[in-house]
Amino acid sequence: MENSAGLIALVVPCYNEAARLNIQEFRSFAAQNPGIRLLFVDDGSRDKTLAILETVRQGNEESVSILPCPVNGGKAEAVRLGILHALDHFAPRIVGFWDADLATPLNAVMLLSRILVEKPAIEMVFGARVKLLGREVERRAIRHYPGRVFATAVSTLLQLSIYDTQCGAKLFRAGPRTREIFAQPFLSKWVFDVEILARYLALHKLSPAQLGAIIYEYPLEKWTDVAGSKLHPTDFLKALRDVWRIYRAYL
Predict the structure, then answer these.
(1) How far is CA 4 from CA 34, 125, 127, 201, 242, in A?
(2) What's the pTM value of the predicted model, to 2 decimals?
(3) Element spanning 150, H or E
C-alpha cells in the first residue's frame, strides 16, 4: 500500500483483547506497510493479550512495538501514553490511534493519512461512521441512536458541527500542538475524544470556527460493530456526565 505521508505511528490500545485480536490481519498489515509503526499498548490485561501481541510482533520487529502497562488505567490513559511514546521514540510525521477490534479496517489508515498530506491546514482527521449508500457501515440501533444524541450534545456544548466524536480511528499531524494536547492525563477514561477537542480550544485559544477549520471528518467506507465491546448501556449516562465535566473544566 503506497505511503506518501512519511512515517505514521499508530497506537492500538488493548485491554483483555485476547479473544478479539485478529493476529493475521495485524501481521499482514505490518509486513506490507514498513512506513507505518504499530504500537500496541497493553493496558494491564489479565488475559493472554500480551502473549498474543508478542506473536504479532514476531518477524515484524522493525514495524511492531509493544508498550506494557502494569495496571489498567483505562483507554484514555493507554492512548495518551502510547501517543507520547510514539512521538518520543519514532519521530513520526503522523500519529494516531486505532481500535484493536478493527471495526475500522486497517486499510483506512492510508485514506485518512492522505488528507493530512493533501491538506496542509488540517491537523486532525477523524473517521466518521456515516451510513451512506455505497458504504458498508453496520451499527446496531441500540448504539447508533444514543450515539446521535451524544454527538448532538457535544456539538451544542462545543459549538462545533462534528458528526462523530467517538469513532476509534483518528490521526493527528505530529508536532508541538499534538504533544501538548496529550501531555496531561485526561479527566474522562472513555470520552477523552471530546476532551481532545476541548483542550485544543482552551490551550490554543481557538474559536470553534478555527477548530473546525483544522479538523477533517472522513466518512468511512467500511465499519463493523464488532461483538465484545466493553461499553454498557449505563455508560451512555456516564459519558454525558463526563462531557459536562469537560465543559466546566475547559470552556
Answers:
(1) 12, 16, 19, 30, 38
(2) 0.93
(3) helix 141-158
- Give the end-to-end CA distance of the chain in Å, rounded to a whole number: 41
- The domains of the chain, with CATH numbers, are 8-250 (3.90.550.10)
Question: Per-residue pLDDT for 200 more than 70?
Answer: yes
Distance separating alpha carbons of residues 34 and 52, to the nearest angstrom: 21
Cα separation, 21 vs 98, whole angstroms: 13
Place of cell 468511512: 220
Report which of 180, 33, 11 is spatially closest to residue 86, judged by C-alpha positions.
Answer: 11
- Whole-angstrom Cα distance, residue 240 to residue 225? 22
Task: Tell me 151's DSSP state.
Answer: H
CA–CA dist 159, 157 (Å, integer):
6
Q: List beta partners, residue 69.
A: 43
Q: At what angle do helices 192-203 and 141-158 cross, to 10 degrees?
A: 10
Q: What is the mean pLDDT of residues 43-55?
A: 97
Query: Locate cell 483483547: which residue?
Result: 17
Backbone angles phi, psi at 91, to 5 degrees: 50, 55
For residues 103 and 213, give the distance between their C-alpha atoms in angstroms, rounded to a whole number.
Answer: 27
